[in-house]
Amino acid sequence: MRFRLTPRETSFYDMFAASADNIVTGSKLLMELLGADSSARAEIAERMRAAEHAGDDATHAIFHQLNSSFITPFDREDIYNLASSLDDIMDFMEEAVDLVVLYNIEELPKGVEQQIEVLARAAVLTAEAMPNLRTMSNLTEYWIEVNRLENQADQIHRKLLAQLFNGKYDAIEVLKLKQVVDVLEEAADAFEHVANTVETIAVKES
Protein backbone atom coordinates (compact mmCIF):
# COMPACT_ATOMS: atom_id res chain seq x y z
CA MET A 1 0.00 0.00 0.00
CA ARG A 2 1.28 3.46 -0.84
CA PHE A 3 2.58 5.62 2.00
CA ARG A 4 0.62 8.85 2.41
CA LEU A 5 1.75 12.10 4.01
CA THR A 6 -1.74 13.62 4.05
CA PRO A 7 -4.82 12.64 6.09
CA ARG A 8 -7.70 10.98 4.28
CA GLU A 9 -11.46 11.42 4.54
CA THR A 10 -12.61 8.14 6.12
CA SER A 11 -16.39 8.59 6.19
CA PHE A 12 -16.60 7.19 2.65
CA TYR A 13 -15.94 3.71 4.02
CA ASP A 14 -18.95 3.88 6.32
CA MET A 15 -21.16 5.22 3.54
CA PHE A 16 -20.15 2.47 1.13
CA ALA A 17 -20.83 -0.10 3.86
CA ALA A 18 -24.28 1.41 4.50
CA SER A 19 -25.09 1.38 0.79
CA ALA A 20 -24.09 -2.28 0.50
CA ASP A 21 -26.07 -3.24 3.62
CA ASN A 22 -29.12 -1.65 2.01
CA ILE A 23 -28.58 -3.85 -1.05
CA VAL A 24 -28.75 -6.91 1.22
CA THR A 25 -32.13 -5.61 2.40
CA GLY A 26 -33.23 -5.34 -1.24
CA SER A 27 -32.08 -8.89 -2.02
CA LYS A 28 -34.08 -10.21 0.95
CA LEU A 29 -37.17 -8.46 -0.40
CA LEU A 30 -36.58 -10.14 -3.77
CA MET A 31 -36.44 -13.50 -1.99
CA GLU A 32 -39.63 -12.61 -0.14
CA LEU A 33 -41.33 -11.83 -3.44
CA LEU A 34 -40.74 -15.39 -4.64
CA GLY A 35 -42.88 -16.90 -1.90
CA ALA A 36 -45.59 -14.23 -1.89
CA ASP A 37 -48.98 -14.42 -3.53
CA SER A 38 -50.19 -11.58 -5.71
CA SER A 39 -52.07 -9.91 -2.85
CA ALA A 40 -48.88 -9.54 -0.80
CA ARG A 41 -46.64 -8.33 -3.60
CA ALA A 42 -47.81 -4.71 -3.59
CA GLU A 43 -46.71 -4.33 0.05
CA ILE A 44 -43.33 -5.90 -0.74
CA ALA A 45 -42.98 -3.48 -3.66
CA GLU A 46 -43.63 -0.57 -1.29
CA ARG A 47 -40.88 -1.74 1.04
CA MET A 48 -38.55 -2.22 -1.91
CA ARG A 49 -39.34 1.29 -3.08
CA ALA A 50 -38.45 2.62 0.37
CA ALA A 51 -35.17 0.67 0.25
CA GLU A 52 -34.42 2.10 -3.19
CA HIS A 53 -35.03 5.63 -1.88
CA ALA A 54 -32.67 4.89 1.02
CA GLY A 55 -30.11 3.76 -1.55
CA ASP A 56 -30.55 7.01 -3.46
CA ASP A 57 -30.00 8.96 -0.25
CA ALA A 58 -26.81 6.99 0.45
CA THR A 59 -25.53 7.65 -3.06
CA HIS A 60 -26.27 11.38 -2.84
CA ALA A 61 -24.48 11.51 0.51
CA ILE A 62 -21.38 9.96 -1.06
CA PHE A 63 -21.48 12.41 -3.97
CA HIS A 64 -21.92 15.35 -1.58
CA GLN A 65 -18.98 14.15 0.50
CA LEU A 66 -16.93 13.69 -2.66
CA ASN A 67 -17.64 17.23 -3.82
CA SER A 68 -16.81 18.75 -0.44
CA SER A 69 -13.67 16.73 0.38
CA PHE A 70 -10.21 17.98 -0.45
CA ILE A 71 -8.59 14.66 0.41
CA THR A 72 -10.20 11.34 -0.58
CA PRO A 73 -9.17 7.79 0.38
CA PHE A 74 -8.75 6.82 -3.27
CA ASP A 75 -9.31 8.26 -6.73
CA ARG A 76 -12.39 10.45 -7.08
CA GLU A 77 -13.41 8.71 -10.29
CA ASP A 78 -13.32 5.33 -8.54
CA ILE A 79 -15.41 6.64 -5.65
CA TYR A 80 -17.96 7.93 -8.14
CA ASN A 81 -18.00 4.66 -10.11
CA LEU A 82 -18.34 2.53 -6.98
CA ALA A 83 -21.21 4.62 -5.60
CA SER A 84 -22.98 4.66 -8.98
CA SER A 85 -22.68 0.91 -9.47
CA LEU A 86 -24.00 0.20 -5.98
CA ASP A 87 -26.94 2.51 -6.74
CA ASP A 88 -27.56 0.69 -10.05
CA ILE A 89 -27.97 -2.63 -8.22
CA MET A 90 -30.77 -1.24 -6.05
CA ASP A 91 -32.41 0.42 -9.04
CA PHE A 92 -32.52 -2.84 -10.99
CA MET A 93 -33.83 -4.88 -8.06
CA GLU A 94 -36.55 -2.32 -7.37
CA GLU A 95 -37.48 -2.24 -11.05
CA ALA A 96 -37.85 -6.04 -11.16
CA VAL A 97 -40.23 -6.07 -8.20
CA ASP A 98 -42.20 -3.14 -9.59
CA LEU A 99 -42.60 -4.85 -12.97
CA VAL A 100 -43.93 -8.03 -11.36
CA VAL A 101 -46.60 -5.96 -9.59
CA LEU A 102 -47.42 -3.63 -12.49
CA TYR A 103 -47.72 -6.49 -14.97
CA ASN A 104 -49.75 -8.52 -12.48
CA ILE A 105 -47.54 -11.55 -13.09
CA GLU A 106 -49.08 -14.43 -11.18
CA GLU A 107 -46.34 -17.02 -11.64
CA LEU A 108 -42.69 -16.39 -12.38
CA PRO A 109 -40.96 -18.92 -14.64
CA LYS A 110 -38.89 -21.71 -13.11
CA GLY A 111 -35.32 -20.47 -12.85
CA VAL A 112 -36.05 -16.96 -11.59
CA GLU A 113 -35.47 -18.22 -8.06
CA GLN A 114 -31.94 -19.20 -9.15
CA GLN A 115 -31.38 -15.69 -10.50
CA ILE A 116 -32.47 -14.18 -7.20
CA GLU A 117 -30.37 -16.63 -5.17
CA VAL A 118 -27.30 -15.51 -7.13
CA LEU A 119 -28.14 -11.87 -6.45
CA ALA A 120 -28.66 -12.58 -2.74
CA ARG A 121 -25.26 -14.27 -2.52
CA ALA A 122 -23.56 -11.42 -4.39
CA ALA A 123 -25.26 -8.91 -2.06
CA VAL A 124 -23.87 -10.61 1.05
CA LEU A 125 -20.37 -10.82 -0.45
CA THR A 126 -20.48 -7.15 -1.41
CA ALA A 127 -21.63 -6.08 2.05
CA GLU A 128 -18.83 -8.12 3.61
CA ALA A 129 -16.25 -6.62 1.25
CA MET A 130 -17.00 -2.91 1.69
CA PRO A 131 -15.48 -2.57 5.21
CA ASN A 132 -12.29 -4.16 3.87
CA LEU A 133 -11.71 -1.11 1.67
CA ARG A 134 -10.20 0.55 4.75
CA THR A 135 -7.25 -1.82 4.71
CA MET A 136 -7.49 -3.16 1.14
CA SER A 137 -7.26 -6.66 2.61
CA ASN A 138 -9.20 -9.88 1.90
CA LEU A 139 -10.69 -8.50 -1.31
CA THR A 140 -9.28 -10.80 -4.00
CA GLU A 141 -11.60 -13.71 -3.20
CA TYR A 142 -14.54 -11.29 -3.22
CA TRP A 143 -14.13 -10.05 -6.76
CA ILE A 144 -13.23 -13.50 -8.07
CA GLU A 145 -16.38 -14.99 -6.54
CA VAL A 146 -18.65 -12.18 -7.74
CA ASN A 147 -17.31 -12.59 -11.27
CA ARG A 148 -18.01 -16.33 -10.99
CA LEU A 149 -21.55 -15.59 -9.81
CA GLU A 150 -22.08 -13.22 -12.72
CA ASN A 151 -21.05 -15.98 -15.15
CA GLN A 152 -23.53 -18.27 -13.41
CA ALA A 153 -26.21 -15.58 -13.72
CA ASP A 154 -25.50 -15.38 -17.47
CA GLN A 155 -26.11 -19.11 -17.84
CA ILE A 156 -29.34 -18.96 -15.84
CA HIS A 157 -30.51 -16.00 -17.92
CA ARG A 158 -29.89 -17.82 -21.20
CA LYS A 159 -31.81 -20.88 -19.97
CA LEU A 160 -34.70 -18.65 -18.90
CA LEU A 161 -34.83 -17.03 -22.33
CA ALA A 162 -34.89 -20.44 -23.99
CA GLN A 163 -37.73 -21.44 -21.68
CA LEU A 164 -39.71 -18.28 -22.46
CA PHE A 165 -39.45 -18.86 -26.21
CA ASN A 166 -40.32 -22.57 -26.19
CA GLY A 167 -43.98 -21.92 -27.07
CA LYS A 168 -45.43 -22.43 -23.59
CA TYR A 169 -46.24 -18.75 -23.09
CA ASP A 170 -48.29 -16.41 -25.25
CA ALA A 171 -46.55 -13.45 -26.86
CA ILE A 172 -47.69 -10.82 -24.34
CA GLU A 173 -46.65 -12.98 -21.39
CA VAL A 174 -43.25 -13.54 -22.97
CA LEU A 175 -42.71 -9.79 -23.24
CA LYS A 176 -43.63 -9.26 -19.58
CA LEU A 177 -41.53 -12.11 -18.21
CA LYS A 178 -38.56 -11.32 -20.44
CA GLN A 179 -38.44 -7.78 -19.12
CA VAL A 180 -38.30 -9.07 -15.53
CA VAL A 181 -35.55 -11.63 -16.14
CA ASP A 182 -33.57 -9.10 -18.19
CA VAL A 183 -33.63 -6.56 -15.35
CA LEU A 184 -32.50 -9.22 -12.87
CA GLU A 185 -29.61 -10.00 -15.24
CA GLU A 186 -28.73 -6.30 -15.28
CA ALA A 187 -28.55 -6.41 -11.47
CA ALA A 188 -26.06 -9.28 -11.72
CA ASP A 189 -24.01 -7.24 -14.20
CA ALA A 190 -24.05 -4.29 -11.79
CA PHE A 191 -22.65 -6.49 -9.01
CA GLU A 192 -19.81 -7.38 -11.34
CA HIS A 193 -19.20 -3.69 -12.07
CA VAL A 194 -18.87 -3.08 -8.31
CA ALA A 195 -16.42 -5.96 -7.97
CA ASN A 196 -14.39 -4.75 -10.95
CA THR A 197 -14.23 -1.24 -9.48
CA VAL A 198 -13.05 -2.64 -6.15
CA GLU A 199 -10.35 -4.59 -7.99
CA THR A 200 -9.26 -1.42 -9.80
CA ILE A 201 -9.04 0.47 -6.50
CA ALA A 202 -7.07 -2.33 -4.83
CA VAL A 203 -4.57 -2.51 -7.70
CA LYS A 204 -4.02 1.24 -7.62
CA GLU A 205 -3.58 1.25 -3.84
CA SER A 206 -1.18 -1.71 -3.76
TrEMBL record:
InterPro entries: PhoU-like_sf, Put_Phosphate_transp_reg, UPF0111_domain. It comes from the Bacteria. It holds the Pfam family PhoU_div. Belongs to the UPF0111 family. This is DUF47 domain-containing protein. It comes from Streptomyces bauhiniae.
